[in-house]
Each structure stands twice: as structure tokens, then as C-alpha cells.
Design brief:
By secondary structure, this protein is an alpha/beta fold. It has a single domain (2-209), classed as Rossmann fold (3-Layer(aba) Sandwich). It contains eight helices and seven strands; from the N terminus they run ααβαβααββαβααββ. Strands 3-2-1-4-5-7-6 form a seven-stranded mixed beta sheet, with helices on both faces. The longest helix has 26 residues, at 10-35. The structure holds S-adenosylmethionine. S-adenosylmethionine binds at residues 5-8, 20, 24, 46-49, 69-72, 75, 98-99, 115-117, 120.
């Protein structure tokens, strides 16, 4: 399970992705609310799973350019299949790649976000450095994760998951020239689909690339 959540692959990866959609839709809505997406913005999602929620992003404002980056071949394939229309219309581009070595020019995005992905960054600074590079000055990073207390209750998180407190994330942002703006927390509705404890406490940490 830990391996599949980190990098879903094959038919069991597809099943895990479906379960993640059910477990994480609330966090998508919460994070998109936090992002306050405006028309004409350029947005990057890192780690989109099977891409079910791209239409939600497009529903937030007109004329968006949205890019998804995921290092799982299976997830990129599934997301391309699921979002054919958005890709054909030209607003959505899905790329296979990893967030510590992104195939994008510097200063490409107004907003970068990731939901349930930072747990898998073995050296978070390498990823934050890259995110800093691809953000425009004044652009913002939205990192949504579940609390350490909730994650500890899931047996598979013993295998290579990193969790963060608000203070720890603030320090990491500071070390990477990202100005910590706020930590919004939310109490998720009860959900038992993945053997998860009910009533998770989750956070969306917001940080900004300083306009140096
Ligand atoms: C636990 S899933 C979360 C999926 C979705 N965001 C959600 O919350 O339901 C993690 C996703 O991030 C991708 N991922 C993990 N680490 C990554 C990295 N360093 N670069 C790009 N994609 C990554 C995985 O392939 C997977 O699709």
C-alpha cells in the first residue's frame, strides 16, 4: 500500500487511485477554496493521481492554463484518458516527471499545489528549490497534508512517509526563500474507505515566492 500510494502502478495502482479519489475529494475542494484561482492564471498540480479533479480546477475561473506533473506512468496515462477533452481544447497539459527536476522553464506558474504528495519527498528541500524556480515572483505554493497525528494511525505510513507540523513546514519554506503566509486547517468529514481513521485534521500550507 505504501508503495502504491507513493507511485501507483499497474492494475492495483488504478484501484488505489480510485480509492484516493473517494478519500481525498474533500481535500481538493478545500485546497481549491484556499487557492482563490483567478482568470488567466497558470497553475501546476504536482502528483495528480488519476486526474479526476482537473475539471474542478477549470470550473473555478476562465481561461486557465493548467499543467499536471506526476512521475507515475500509469497515472499520467489514466489522467490523459480521463481528460481528453480538456487536453484537446488546449487548457490542460499532463507531463510525466518528478518534482525535484521539473521540465518547465523558470517563472512559469502563478500557483503550484500538491495534495498528499509532500509525504514522499525524501529531501523536501530539493523539491522546494525546484518549486521556487518554476514559480513566478509573487506566485504561491499550496501544500495540503494530513496531520502527523492522523497519519500515525495509518499502519502503512511507517514505510517512508514524512509528516510535518506547521512549524517544521514554516522553517523549510524559510530555508528555500519562500515566505510562509498561513496554515489553514480543516477537520475532514468521517471517512473509512482506506482503513483510515475518521475525522482527519488536515492543513493547507500557503507560501509565496518573494519578489526579490
Ligand atoms: C498519494 S497520491 C495523491 C494523489 C492525489 N493528489 C490525491 O490526493 O488523491 C501521490 C501522487 O503523487 C505522485 N508523486 C509522488 N511523488 C512525486 C514526485 N516527487 N513527483 C511527481 N509526482 C509524484 C504519485 O505518483 C501519485 O500519483
Amino acid at each position: 500500500m505504501a508503495r502504491q500510494l507513493r507511485k501507483p502502478a499497474g492494475s492495483s495502482g488504478m484501484e488505489v487511485a480510485e480509492k484516493m479519489n473517494a478519500a481525498n475529494e474533500f481535500l481538493y475542494d478545500f485546497t481549491l477554496d484556499e487557492m482563490m484561482i483567478r482568470e488567466n492564471q497558470s497553475i501546476l498540480e504536482i502528483g495528480f493521481g488519476n486526474g479526476k479533479f482537473f475539471p474542478k480546477q477549470f470550473s473555478r475561473a476562465d481561461n486557465l492554463r493548467i499543467t499536471g506533473l506526476d512521475f507515475s506512468r500509469s497515472m499520467v496515462k489514466a489522467a490523459r484518458k480521463q481528460n481528453k477533452e480538456l487536453i484537446r481544447e488546449g487548457g490542460l497539459s499532463l507531463v510525466k516527471g518528478q518534482s525535484d527536476k521539473m521540465p518547465f522553464p523558470s517563472a512559469s506558474f502563478d500557483k503550484v499545489f500538491c495534495i498528499n504528495v509532500a509525504y514522499f519527498w525524501d529531501d523536501p528541500q530539493e523539491h522546494l528549490l525546484e518549486i521556487y524556480r518554476v514559480l513566478r515572483p509573487g506566485g504561491r505554493l499550496y501544500t495540503t497534508i494530513r496531520s502527523r497525528e492522523n497519519m500515525k494511525l495509518l499502519p502503512f505510513t511507517r514505510y517512508g512517509f514524512k509528516t510535518y507540523t506547521e512549524e517544521e513546514w514554516k522553517l523549510l519554506c524559510h530555508l528555500n526563500n519562500l515566505l510562509f503566509i498561513r496554515c489553514s486547517s480543516v477537520h475532514e468529514p468521517d471517512f473509512t474507505g482506506m482503513g483510515a481513521p475518521t475525522g482527519n485534521r488536515s492543513f493547507c500550507m500557503v507560501a509565496e515566492k518573494r519578489d526579490l
